[in-house]
């Protein structure tokens, strides 16, 4: 008899797990509360403009390729991938740093800012590559069950790199504050402050400078379409507009879910929804982590986002643009140490239509603005507008042109939407941070300790936040299910 499994949610991790489980012979059904699949990576199409609602940086192309290879496919069977050149631009208050698509160009740029800095940069990136090879090929593929998973001959000889921070490592080698910010930026994807992120995580710098920044033509949603297409070809049934209200347990065993008032039985249940929310779908006795456990974790930031249609092409911008023209540390404190709306926020803007004509009508620009903020902050229309005004004024100044009168429309998304759209804990955008104390076996577990046949995947469990880790999370949980429930 074919074993059945119900999966809650249709983000990257759930779609990934569904493919591996269907390939292994399980009868897989996905239940997604929203009207389209993709979770945080959904798409907004308005008046000919195409916006990715969530992720926009395509890093670690090898991980996407490996995912599709596991099914005898390649990314190129589904979407066209272009390497961005330059990768991105960073606007400081008095200078712009452009990150090229090759180490030689990046070294030249570093030399322009700080003479002699290209030598330590090459060394730093070589070490980051070493970390990448160990992390991606050895450490990250472990299910986070035991601390011994982290003990390999490669990690044991580099154990100091788990206790030193990225911040100290960067500052040891570079003095110029702009270069320091440039090198600390990639670890922000892990959701924590650079001075709380182990230096081993410099593998993100290799992902950045070594592997480059890519763009799937048509936007990040093309990856979701590809995974959905693959999952359905393997027999996965995807049900949208299907809100899961309960995980049903009988005698300590998961026996199915309740969806839109209907009880559906299955042999196993896997939740790809936010871990905290998934546990609230259980009776209290079956929850593993208390409210105070969640409250004490370091969560990755939430975000205030604007999706803006412009009726002209903008000058002086690239596909990806970081506005680091205010104090990085003060903003980080306002996210992590003393959560409040930031006084002078850093922000990020992407214009995919700069390199991909399909994303906007002719002569127009598709703009996505993101301000990272602490999760759980008050979110009102007035605050959103206040912050839009702040960043658009700075944006106009930095790019040296007026754009405000060229806005055709703007939509926003913030804490309240993360909660209502995704059942996200405190409205977090990127899940739980990867600090030393929240790494690997110290993260919430893939398998429930209290309910047999119940599993979890996604950015709050292993390996952590981001699209590539979510693909890996789906693979890890599928392997665990195959091993435990054969
Ligand atoms: C604004 C933003 C920018 C980002 N930028 C990047 C980036 O540039 N690069 C990168 O790699 N990563 C980025 N990330 C992170 C990345 O998007 C996430 O790590 C990843 O998408 C998380 O996938 P997931 O599978 O864990 O869960 P999710 O995408 O959250 O999927 C969970 C799904 O479960 C559904 N669900 C919840 N409750 C229920 C229920 N009761 N019943 C049914 N369904 C339910 C939700 O609707 C959702 O569809 C970004 C995230 C955001 C929000």
What is the fold named in CATH at topology level of the domain at 4-39 and 58-67 and 218-296 and 432-484? FAD/NAD(P)-binding domain
Number of strands: 19
**Overall 3D shape:** globular
Task: Say which CATH homologous superfamily of the domain at 4-39 and 58-67 and 218-296 and 432-484 is assigned.
Answer: FAD/NAD(P)-binding domain
How large, in whole angstroms, is the Cα Rg?
22 Å
Q: If you average the pLDDT, what whole number results?
A: 95
N-end to C-end Cα span: 12 Å
Q: Under the CATH scheme, which architecture of the domain at 4-39 and 58-67 and 218-296 and 432-484 would be assigned?
A: 3-Layer(bba) Sandwich
Helix content: 25-40%
Class per helix and strand makeup: alpha/beta
Characterise this structure.
With 486 residues, the chain is an alpha/beta fold. Among the domains are: 4-39 and 58-67 and 218-296 and 432-484, FAD/NAD(P)-binding domain (3-Layer(bba) Sandwich), CATH 3.50.50.60; 104-209, Orthogonal Bundle (Guanine Nucleotide Dissociation Inhibitor, domain 1). The protein is built from 16 helices and 19 strands. It has helices spanning 12-23, 61-69, 103-113, 118-139, 153-156, 160-163, 166-173, 177-184, 203-211, 221-233, 275-280, 291-296, 328-336, 381-399, 415-422, 467-484; strands at residues 4-8, 27-31, 43-46, 49-52, 81-83, 88-91, 96-99, 214-216, 237-239, 244-250, 253-259, 262-265, 268-271, 302-310, 320-323, 347-350, 365-373, 407-413, 454-456. It has a seven-stranded mixed beta sheet. Strand 3 (43-46) and strand 4 form a beta hairpin. The two termini are 12 Å apart. The mean pLDDT is 95. Residues 8-14, 31-34, 39-41, 54-57, 243-244, 272-273, 277, 303, 305, 370, 422-423, 429-431, 458-459, 465-467, 470 line the site of flavin-adenine dinucleotide.
